[in-house]
Design a protein that fits this description.
The complex is a heterodimer of chains A (213) and B (808). In chain A, the strands form three sheets. A six-stranded mixed sheet of chain A has the order 6-7-8-3-9-10. In chain A, helix 3 packs across helix 4. Chain A is 36% helix and 20% strand. Chain B folds into four domains: 199 residues, no CATH class; 179 residues, no CATH class; 222 residues, no CATH class; 154 residues, no CATH class. The two termini of chain B are 24 Å apart. Chain B contains 24 helices and 22 strands. In chain B, the strands form two sheets. A six-stranded mixed barrel of chain B has the order 2-3-9-6-8-7. Chain B is 55% helix and 17% strand. Classes of the chains: A alpha/beta (213), B alpha+beta (808). Chains A and B meet through helix 2 and helix 3 of A and helix 21, helix 22 and helix 24 of B.
Chain lengths: 213, 808
């Protein structure tokens, strides 16, 4: 699988010759310097970005033979996300943010499930706070709650501690791995932090768009 | 930097808003400026002299001797209306009978034939000749050299009159003009009891001589007489023109304010998009002042360009206004001065500073730490204060521009009030609707949504007013003359002619019309105290008191009058007064009034008040007395009746047989009045275009207001697996609710304002407009739906990953 992008009148190769297989329940770390294409790889795995060549199969489904809505439906069932910049909606409270995937799926117990998840990540007292009133670590925990609330099969994490200080980062990572273990999800985590990568069962390194041996 | 930001788009809106505001205001400003200059230039011409005394009764010997002694040059004139007849054609004409040295200043202009080039006229016209306007030539079929009858006299048409200086004054002087030699008047037999004649004495000469004359004449002026000099001259011109200019100014102001709203909205969006850039600059060491200066410089440059463009546009538009009103003004307008241009520039800069500066202040306060933690963005406490300062400055500028403190404050205050009301109402409604589960998102972005809805409502109100309401008002005005109303007024019937005329009409199978007696009298005292014009501060009241009243007498109240207070006559010494005039003059039931008629005085008490409709086209009297009181005093009779098409020859015969009669074709007069109003409306509509453009701009800005936020939300939802439909639906419901609320508010606003205008300004009955009530909410709905569709298209087309990355 590969991804090429036009920039002006020259071509930029972001990913090339990616041949990757991830088994269920695995924890995979994708490492590499910045510009190596890590985040793009993650986006393609989620069906958010389209590859220029090759195919991607998720739980047996050919991702890019489906249309945009089909991929969305798949994501709704199977995928959870954690972003480096948290990506919480500023106009919603912590509770409402956590409820988002449940609402989209039309779940009647959205509020109860979200509340439970937030309590699990230790924010039971902060349900009605808006993101701007939460610290970075707390926001990421809300994001974790949001990611796990649907019990996804696959969790994609893009530099989850990139915006956090060491202590918050450590807390968040512990929480992440705990939740992962509890739910039995497959984890693919992009990081530039080698020690973090070491905690994952498997690591791949991207170098100039290719998987380095 | 300006070019880069221009490409982004927000500055385009800002620029457009400024251009519109400046163009609207300068177009009206330039026009008004030229008209004022013309008035000054033509002042002499308009008077026809340096000093004029106007009287509604013949001059006493006192005043005449004074003029003979003191006036270096003097002339005289009479002004009245009369039928001019040629063969079987007749036409009502405005007659000016002048002594041979008229005018003392300026010149009449005449031409040898209609359409031929004209020239300044020699003093005249000579005895036996008349000079008539082209319209009269056409109506009577009398070219130069033909003869026509005026009253009992036959006169020759000597030339075609193309310009009569004093004429230009009165917009509503509807009868075509005829100038004759004053010495010919006695032969016409037209100046009789009941004829309305204005008498003029003119004087001209060196300024100090005129000044001396003025000081001596003033104390000798009687009731019904006034003195006009260059300074006071031609109030009617000023008044009429000012009325038209007020409408224009109002519309221009509306455009300016709407543009201000657009500027505020666009600036807000500009700032939001530049917050990150500013944070980076702060990291790189730029001081707060530096950042502010940078952006202010950019904006000022933009303002400069926009003001220049706006002024140029305004100049062009002003030309269009001038041509639309050309006929009414009957004058060449001089070139405009620079002042309106300066005002335009000032307005542009005030709009910019007042509405764009407050959001800009946020930029300078962006903390550098924002580069790391995006959420950190300070909202300076001074923002509200800055907006307030901007509004006050704008209000001050508007007052200056309107030239009228009341008007300026009304508009500014009314607008601010409307905005507040819209905001509050939108807030309440949206929060209320947000109680429903599906519409809960309404409450989340409460402030932005409310701002968007209120702005949308405002823009929509302007649009609705300028389309539906304007149409409705015009229709209502057109409808105000009922179809079977009388269309001819017959004036000046002498008592001895009454029988013959009645017989004539019967013979020609006209339904016997009612003839009302008319006695001219002047009110001299109320409850024993003498009454004078000086007692009344209001212009209208003063005029009413100065001139003679048309009194009438009858046994029973007229069918189309309704007694609103008191009771009808039982005794001889009673009066019935129309309620409006009673109110204006401060007369009440039970007051005793004294009237002077032809040297005699009578007294009577007001025992009833009447309500009547002036536009019913029937004969109406302010004051009615019982027959016993007025019989025996000099009387003429008037009547109103309907002439069907094809019956005109009968009218011509009537006037030929009784040449002293005056027959006023009311329908023609109405038609002409309508034409005048149509012309005014056309001129005003030109300025409306600016207001419309400004309104559309506000709409556009309002629609864009929450776009960035929604885009992010939509991207995130799609990341989490929402189908396109779901995304569209969730935001769609919000838009639906907001659109309905905005549409409803706009409809209410337009309906309310329309009603106010109809009642207070135009005195019309405005029927509730189905079109308005349907289209208002629908338009709101349609606009927001369109926006929802457009924005969701752009959002859903892009891949979510990219959208999210943009905001990272």
């Amino acid at each position: 699988m590969g991804k090429t992008v036009r920039s002006g009148d020259s071509e930029l190769v972001i990913l090339r010759d990616i041949d990757l297989e991830i088994t269920r329940g695995e924890a995979l770390a994708v490492v590499g310097a910045s510009g190596s294409g890590k985040s793009t790889l993650l986006a393609i795995l989620a069906g958010l970005d389209t590859p220029s060549a090759g195919k991607v199969f998720l739980e047996g489904h050919d991702l890019f033979s489906l249309d945009e809505d089909g991929r969305a439906a798949l994501r709704a069932r199977l995928v959870g996300f954690v972003f480096q910049s948290f990506q919480l909606l500023p106009a919603r409270t912590a509770l409402e943010n956590a409820m988002l995937p449940l609402e989209l799926a039309g779940r009647a117990d959205a509020e109860a499930a979200a509340r439970a998840m937030l309590e699990r990540v230790g924010l039971g007292a902060r349900l009605r706070h808006y993101p701007k009133h939460l610290s970075g670590g707390e926001q990421q925990r809300v994001a974790l709650a949001r990611a796990f609330v649907m019990r996804p099969s696959l969790l994609l994490a893009d530099e989850p501690t990139g915006s956090l200080d060491a202590q918050s980062g450590a807390e968040v990572i512990e929480l992440l791995f705990d939740l992962n273990r509890e739910a039995g999800t497959t984890l693919v985590m992009v990081t530039h932090d080698d020690s973090l990568a070491a905690r994952c069962a498997r690591q791949i390194r991207l170098l100039a768009g290719r998987i380095a041996a | 930097m300006l070019r880069r930001d221009w490409r982004a788009g927000e500055l385009r809106i800002l620029g457009a808003a400024l251009v519109i505001a400046v163009a609207a205001v300068t177009s009206v400003g330039f026009f008004a400026d030229r008209v004022a200059a013309a008035l000054v230039r033509d002042a002499h011409q308009l008077l026809g002299a340096d000093l004029v005394v106007v009287s509604d009764h013949p001059f006493g010997s006192d005043l005449r001797r004074l003029f003979e002694a003191r006036a270096p040059q003097r002339a005289e004139a009479l002004n009245f209306i009369s039928m001019a007849i040629a063969g079987d054609k007749s036409q009502l004409a405005g007659v000016k009978a002048v002594t041979e040295n008229y005018p003392l200043r300026g010149r009449l202009r005449i031409a040898p034939a209609p359409g031929a080039p004209d020239a300044a006229a020699p003093p005249g016209p000579p005895r036996g000749e008349v000079w008539i306007e082209e319209r009269l030539v056409a109506a009577l079929g009398t070219p130069v050299g033909a003869r026509l009858k005026l009253g009992s006299a036959e006169l020759t048409v000597g030339a075609v009159l193309t310009l009569e200086p004093e004429r230009g004054a009165n917009f509503f002087n509807l009868a075509p003009r005829l100038v004759m030699n004053a010495a010919d008047v006695p032969a016409t037999g037209l100046v009789q009891t009941g004829s309305r004649v204005s008498y003029y004495l003119y004087a001209a000469g060196p300024a100090d001589a005129i000044h001396v004359l003025e000081n001596e004449v003033r104390p000798r002026l009687e009731r019904g007489q006034r003195l006009d000099t260059l300074e006071s001259g031609r109030q009617e011109v000023r008044a009429s023109i000012e009325r038209a200019q007020r409408f224009l100014a109002l519309t221009a102001l509306l455009s300016a304010i709407l543009a201000g709203v657009a500027v505020a909205l666009a600036a807000r969006r500009f700032v939001e998009r530049h917050l990150d850039g500013c944070a980076v600059m702060r990291c790189l060491g730029a001081s707060q002042a530096r950042i502010l200066a940078l952006y202010m410089g950019e904006f000022l440059l933009l303002a400069l360009a926009a003001c220049a463009l706006g002024t140029a546009l305004g100049l062009a538009a002003q030309q269009a206004i001038a041509s639309a009103l050309g006929e009414l003004l009957r004058a060449e307008l001089p070139a405009p001065s620079l002042l309106p241009g300066v005002q335009g520039f000032l307005l542009g800069f005030v709009l910019l500073l007042g509405f764009a500066l407050p959001p800009l202040l946020r930029l300078k306060d962006v903390p550098a730490v924002r580069v790391i933690r995006r959420e950190a963005a300070a909202a300076p406490a001074g923002v509200l204060g800055a907006y307030a300062a901007g509004l006050v400055t704008l209000a001050a500028l508007l007052v200056w521009q309107a030239g009228d403190v009341k008007l300026g404050l009304y508009v500014a205050g009314g607008f601010a009030g409307a905005l507040l009301v819209f905001f509050a109402a939108a807030w309440a409604l949206l929060n209320g609707l947000g109680a429903l589960r599906r519409l809960r998102p309404l409450r989340r972005r409460a402030f932005s949504n409310t701002l968007q809805t209120a702005s949308l409502a405002l823009g929509l109100t302007a649009l609705l007013l300028l389309t539906f309401t304007r149409n409705d008002l015009v229709q209502a005005w057109r409808r105000s003359a009922p179809p079977d109303a009388p269309n001819r007024f017959l004036l000046g019937v002498q008592p001895e002619q009454l029988g013959q005329i009645k017989g004539f009409l019967e013979e020609k199978r006209f339904e016997a019309p009612t003839f009302y007696p008319m006695v001219r009298g002047r009110v001299t005292a109320k409850n024993g105290e003498p009454v004078s014009a000086a007692d009344y501060p209001e212009e209208r009241a003063r005029r009413l008191v100065e001139r003679e009243f048309n009194l009438s007498y009858m046994d029973a109240p007229p069918a189309h009058n309704v007694l609103s207070a008191g009771r009808w006559f039982r005794d001889a010494n009673e009066l019935s007064v129309e309620e409006g005039i009673a109110r204006t003059l401060g007369w009440r039931l039970g007051d005793e009034l004294a009237f002077a008629v032809a040297g005699e005085t009578f007294r009577a008490r007001i025992t009833s008040l009447r309500a009547l409709r002036w536009d019913s086209m029937r004969v109406n009297f302010f004051v009615i007395a019982p027959p016993g009181l007025l019989k025996g005093l000099p009387t003429s009779f008037i009547s109103a009746f309907r002439v069907a098409p094809g019956q005109e020859p009968v009218m011509n015969e009537l006037v030929a047989r009784f040449p002293n009669l005056t027959l006023v074709d009311v329908s023609a007069a109405l038609r002409q009045a309508r034409e005048v109003v149509d012309q005014l409306v056309n001129a005003v509509q030109l300025v409306f275009v600016f207001a419309l453009a400004a309104g559309v701009l506000v709409l556009y800005c309002a629609l864009l207001a929450t776009e960035d936020e929604r885009r992010r939300e939509a991207a995130l939802m799609r990341v989490y697996g929402a189908a396109r439909r779901q995304v569209a639906a969730s935001q769609g419901a919000e838009f639906l609710a907001m659109g309905l609320v905005a549409g409803a508010l706009a409809t209410l606003g337009a309906a309310l304002i329309g009603e106010l205008l109809a009642r207070r300004v135009f005195d019309l009955d405005l029927a509730p407009s189905l079109g308005l009530w349907l289209c208002g909410p629908l338009a709101g709905l349609a606009l927001l739906s369109l926006n929802a569709w457009l924005s969701s298209r752009s959002v859903l087309r892009a891949s979510p990953a990219l959208t999210l990355r943009d905001s990272v």
